[in-house]
Structure formats: C-alpha cells, structure tokens
Write a structure and sequence with these properties.
- The chain folds into 2 domains: about 90 residues, Rossmann fold (3-Layer(aba) Sandwich), CATH 3.40.50.10860; about 130 residues, NAD(P)-binding Rossmann-like Domain (Rossmann fold).
- The strands form 3 sheets. A 5-stranded parallel sheet has the order 5-4-6-7-10.
- The protein contains 10 helices and 10 strands.
- The N and C termini lie far apart (about 40 Å).
- The longest helix has 22 residues.
- The structure holds guanine.
C-alpha cells in the first residue's frame, strides 16, 4: 500500500541517478578486480528520430557509469540478411558483453527473426524468447528494462504492491506482458489485469486500480475520470505532440493526462522525467550483468 506522507511525484531523475551511482560503483569494483569495462553494442537501422534520441541517451548514460559502447548505424534500406550478419558477428565477438537492436525496425525486416538471432546471453533488452521464458518461469536472466525500471521505481518509492489491484493498460511484449508477470511474482503479489485496445469498458477496469500503469502509446489516453482517488499511477508513454511554442516544434507527453490525474493520484510519475530515465538506468544494470556472465563463461 502507499505511504501517505511520501511525496506525490515519483521522480525518475532522482531514482535513475541513484541506480546509475550504484552501477558506477559496482563497475569501479569490477574493473578494480582486473576486469575490462563492460561493453555494450547497439544497432540502429534507419533514421527514426525517436530511436536516434533513445540510443544517444543510452550512450550518454553508459559513458557516465563506465560502460564502453559502440553503435552501429545502418541505412534504412539495409537488408535483413546484412543485419543478421552483423548480429552474428557481434554474438561471436568476445569483446561484446551486451547487444541490443533498437526497435522499431524498418517494415521490410522481420523483428522477431532479428530478436531471435541475438545471443540470449548478450540480450540485455531481455526480448529473446529464452529470456522471456525464463522471466515467465520465475528464474529471470535479463528483465526487460522498462518493466524492470517500473518495479524498481515502486520499491524505491516504498510502494508495497502486496494484494494491490494492478491494472496494466497495454499488452506489448516489451512492457505490458513482462510487467504483468513481474507484478504477479510472489515478491510483488499484486492481482493483475491487463487491458488493451479491445477491452470493453476500459474505464470500469482502470477505476478499480490501486496501481495503474499506462502503456498504451497514446497521448493523454488516461484522464482523471478513469482513476480512483489514491491510486499509484505509472506513465510509460512517451508521445510527441506538436507544439509551435517550443524550439523543436514538439513536446513530450505521456499516456496520462497529468494535470487532470495528478490531484487524484497518491503517487504519479511525470513525463518527461519518469519511467524513461529508469528504463535507461536498468539497461546499464543489465549490461554489467552481461559482463559478469561473460566472465563466468556462461
Ligand atoms: N524501442 C522502444 N523501447 C525499446 C527498448 O527498450 N529496447 C530496444 N532495443 N528498442 C526499443
């Protein structure tokens, strides 16, 4: 349950900084033991502006904590077989600990085939079926960074999910499905409902939520009427909406109508400055784990 004296805003900047500080300290210990710094390889296909911004953010965070990175930028018309060749080379490269292919990929490339090609021991995104299976079974190796970050935000904000009615809006393989599994674990013990675009009377479900997670990918999708008084609200959305008053011509908003929902929520994450930063921080944690796995030879 929630602590009524806690600040209303769950501050992703502060929490992500704490995670980065811990990862940096752990990497210092790791290199003091004589290991080389962890190495993360990212592959970016095409020129999707949001993907480029995400990858730049990941590089910046990695540099801060002492993770070496190399991003392979491929043209939008790169063939699937050329991309798979690169993935196979990075799988075989012993200097690469963690490997991720930024999504979405261009339409002529089958995402599942590419995800399946990543060596599961290097799959710091946790998207490979072996890693998703391990998560489902309750023996995770890599937890996908966004759901991992959300669980970390809840625990670091002293939100106890035991017995909570958790409603997750969105059923993606990257967020909704793995998060539902994490909330179900005996370490979290929430009762989980997963809603989606075909859910009948969505608001009837969201209004029952003690913990509401919005991962629908639609700006201001959740308004105040859909939220019960005292709910904990986690906004996973990062949507660009046109805004001529800004230098870039757009601003970032979440899936939650923040101003409308904030008065009712016990705790709420902002966008920007919320889940997105934690996602980046948890990728760093996974990359350190990848380096440890590699050193153990597993
Ligand atoms: N696209 C949106 N989120 C992610 C992510 O966490 N990892 C990768 N590789 N691509 C994404």
């Amino acid at each position: 349950m929630t602590d009524a004296t806690a600040p209303k805003l769950i501050d992703g900047r502060e929490l992500a900084q704490a995670v980065r500080d811990e990862v940096r300290a752990a990497i210092n210990d790791w290199t003091d033991e004589g290991h080389r710094p962890p190495f993360l390889s990212a592959v970016l296909v095409g020129d999707n502006a949001a993907s480029e911004a995400y990858v730049r953010g990941k590089e910046k965070d990695a540099a801060e904590v002492g993770i070496d990175t190399n991003t392979h930028h491929l043209d939008a018309d790169t063939s699937q077989s050329a991309l798979l060749d690169l993935v196979h080379n990075l799988n075989a490269d012993p200097s690469v600990d963690g490997l991720l292919v930024q999504l979405p990929l261009p339409d002529h490339i089958d995402e599942q085939t590419v995800i399946d090609a990543v060596d599961p021991s290097k799959d710091v995104d946790g998207f490979h079926p072996e890693n998703l299976g391990r998560l489902l079974r309750g023996t995770p190796r890599y937890i996908p960074a966004t759901p991992y970050g959300i669980m970390e935000m809840l625990s670091r904000s002293n939100v106890d999910t035991e017995g909570m009615d958790a409603v997750v809006v969105g059923r993606s393989n990257i967020v909704g499905k793995p998060l539902a599994n994490l909330l179900l674990r005996r370490t979290a013990n929430a009762t989980v409902t997963v809603c989606h675009s075909r859910t009948r009377d969505l608001a009837a479900h969201t209004r029952r939520a003690d913990l509401l997670v919005a991962a629908a990918g639609q700006a201001a999708f959740i308004d105040g009427d859909m939220v019960t008084e005292g709910a904990v609200v986690i906004d996973v959305g990062i949507n660009r909406v046109e805004d001529a008053s800004t230098e870039r011509g757009y601003r970032l908003v979440g899936d939650v109508d923040f101003d409308d929902v904030r008065p009712k929520a016990a705790r709420i994450t902002p966008v920007p400055g919320g889940v997105g930063l934690m996602t980046r921080a948890m990728l760093l944690k996974n990359t350190l784990q990848a380096a440890r796995l590699r050193a153990e030879g597993s």
